Structure formats: C-alpha cells, structure tokens
Amino acid sequence: MQVYNFDKIRKEVNIDLMKREAENKRRYYFQLNLFEENNLSFREDIYNIENKKEIMIKTFEKKLIGNSDKNDLRKIKILTDIEFKYNIFRSCKFNNIKFNNCSFLGTSFLNCNFKNISFENCFFYNSSGDISIFNNKTKFKNCYFKSCYMENSVFQNVNFYSVSFIHTNLKNSIFSEVHMDKVYITDSDCRSLKILNPDINEFKFDDNFLTKFDEYTFIDKIKVDKNYKKTYEIASKVYMEFASKFEANRLMDNCGEYYYMSKCMENKSLSGLNKIKSYIFWMLCGYGERPTYALITSLEIVLIFAIIYMFTGISVGGYIIDYKLALEYGLAMPDLISDFMQSIYFSIVTFTTVGYGDITPIGGSILLSGIEMLLGVTMVGVWTATLARKITR
Questions:
Q1: Distance linking the first and last C-alpha atoms of the chain
Q2: For residue 159, which of 107, 112, 104, 211 has the smallest C-alpha distance?
C-alpha cells in the first residue's frame, strides 16, 4: 500500500506555504504601523551594519553587504549579536560574512545572493511565530548553517550550491521549487520538513549521530530529465538517502515507500539484462514493498495457464478439453464457459500444488503443469514473505 498521497500532501503544503507568507506580510505591516522610522533609503551601494545592534523595519534594495571583494576569503566580516526584525532585503548581495548569534525575525530575502556566508547560533524564528522567508531566486553558494533555529522557515524558488545544515533545527520548514547541488545535512532536526518539487543534483545526510525524522517528513517526487539517464540515478540515490534515514528513525513504512521509489528510479537508469531483472523484481513483489503485486501476478499466471491448457489438453474424467483439435478438425465447439471453468480450476490446484487428481494433463499440458507448479511454489513464497515483512513493520 502506498504511504503517501503526493497530490494531497503537495496541495496541503502549498496552502500552508501561502498562509505563512501572508502571515509574515501581516506581521511586517503591523510593525510598520507601530514605528515612525522605517524604510530608509540608502544612497551608498555598500551598507555597513557592523556597529549596529538592531536593524528594524527597513527595506534594502540592491545593496552589497559585507566584503566588497567577494573573492578574498581572508576579509571575512564577523557580525555578532545583531537583531534583524521585520526587514526586507531585495536584490542584495551578502559576501564573506560570519553571522554569530544574530536573529532574523520576520525578515524576507527576495532575489538575494549569499556567497561565503556562515550562520552560527542564529535564530530565524521565535515562539511568537515570526519566521524568515527566502524567495524569488535567492541563491546560496558556499554557505553553512550551524546550530541555527530555522523552524517553520520558508525557502521558495531558491538555489543551493555547496550548502550545509549542521546541528540545525529545520523542523516544519518548507523547501519549495528549490535547486540543490551539493547540499549536506548533518545531525539536524528534520521532523515535519517538507521538500516540494525539488531539482536535485547532489543531496546527502552526513551524520555523526542522527538526523531526526518523523512520519510527517516528506520529499516530493524529484524532477528528472527523461532524456538524461543520469537524473534517474541521482533521484534514486536521494530517495535511498531518505529511506535510510527513515529506517534509522524506525519509521519503516516511510522507509519502504522511499526504497520503492528509489528502485523505480534505478530501473529507469538501467539497460539490457539488468533492466529486465529489475522489471521482473518489480512485477513479482514491487521490490518487496507491494504484496498485492505478488497476488496480482499469481492470478495472472493462473489465468494465462488456464487458457493455454484449453489448447494443449486436459482430461476431466475421460472428457477431453482440447480446443486445438476442435479448430483443426472442425469438431463441434463444446460449452466454452464450462470448459474454461474446468481449466481455471485445474490451473489453481496445479499452481497451489494441491493436485486432487480429478483432472489430469495430457500432451503438452504435462510439461506446462510442472512449470506452473514451480511458479506457484515460488510465488506463494514471495507473496508470504512480502506480506509478512510489511505486517511485522
């Protein structure tokens, strides 16, 4: 049984996303009406925030914040204990900055570029419901978040290049329409984390201990280029990363779902004999995650062999059912429904290896019945094992 209803979850998360953005705007304009000083217009292209302790209700547009020489990593500005409250950064560039013990509450970053930025012990939300929003093609390159509090944060239409989240609280955060290239998560809290419509090149959990998941943690179906097999391999690896983390958190149903998705993506990246073997494994039992597949395949085998027996011949108490002879010699056609039911019955008892002996195979049916018995023993074992695996979880 499928664990996730992707369309339903995607719809619910998008509604939640719109509510968070609307609430963030409402809080911003509420604070805007409380203070007279707001939305300062800065003439300089570079804005110096080193000596400030609080920056509140301002709009920054096309400002360079930090080191103007973005390629000189030796000139890193260290900013400590600064409170950013209800600000809007639009089309700003942040270069070579280390934010330490800073807070970004009710702040929006729109179409901003972060390069060589580190956030340590920073707050992006509080218990009052203030959150941070990153939107409109904001980019992160060579950045990391360490021991940060980012619960309920929103990353929408954001690009990540070489970004790490270390010991960071990402609980109930939403990543929507994001591009991820070399994104690493280490020992973080990802309970109820939602990732919608991602485009992923490389994504890994690099844990020393354990990244926390719960049953509401969710990653949507990854975007793939159907003309480029490599994207199927990447998607398969990412799904397997999530499967292993669900397993480590003892969430076995969720683990099984992402394992199944991983194997489906892997199948599309294979070719030749490996693809055939993978497809057979999928058809037999859904890679061990779909017990109903084994049952359906078993019913299909029974039906196919029943039809074949009608042409290879079986004997029902001396009465011969052989439609091949009827077609060759123009014999009168017997009762089709009755004969088909007899063939179905013989196929079932042969598949289950019961063998009452009231119907016997003749001609080519002797060899075919032996093959069906072998298939029956195998399929019953596969179905039982797959079902037991799901139940014991």
A1: 13
A2: 112
Q: What is the pLDDT of residue 226?
A: 85
Asked if 234 and 266 touch (Cβ cutoff 8 Å), the reply is no
The C-alpha atoms of residue 146 and residue 167 are separated, in whole angstroms, by 6
Q: Which residues contact 294 (CB under 8 A, 6 or more apart)?
A: 284, 285, 286, 379, 382, 383, 386, 387
As a whole number of angstroms, the distance between CA 263 and CA 8 comes to 23
User: What is the rounded CA–CA span in Å between residue 199 and residue 164?
Assistant: 17
Residue 172 banded pLDDT, cuts 50, 70, 90: very high
Q: How far is CA 208 from CA 72, 188, 189, 247, in A?
A: 32, 10, 13, 16
Tens digit of pLDDT for each residue in 303-329?
A: 999 999 998 988 888 888 888 766 666
Query: Hey, is 46 helix, strand or coil?
Result: strand
Cα(268)–Cα(229) distance, rounded to whole angstroms?
7
Inter-helix orientation angle 252-269/229-248, to 10°: 160
65 three-class SS? strand
Cβ-contact 142, 116 below 8 angstroms? yes
Question: Could you tell me the two tokens for 197?
Answer: 């419509």
Find the length of the chain: 393
Are 213 and 190 in contact by the 8 Å Cβ rule? The answer is: yes
Q: How confident is the model at residue 40 (pLDDT cuts 50, 70, 90)?
A: very low
CA 348 to chain centre: 40
* Mean pLDDT, residues 99-127 taken together: 95
Least confident of 153-162, 237-246, 317-326, 364-373: 317-326
CB 88 within 8 A of CB 108: yes
> What's the burial of 351, exposed, middle or buried (CB within 10 Å: 0-12/13-18/19+)?
buried
Closest CA to 121 of 97, 96, 148: 148
pLDDT at residue 73 above 80? Answer: no
Average pLDDT of the residues in 336-346: 88
Give the global pTM. 0.83
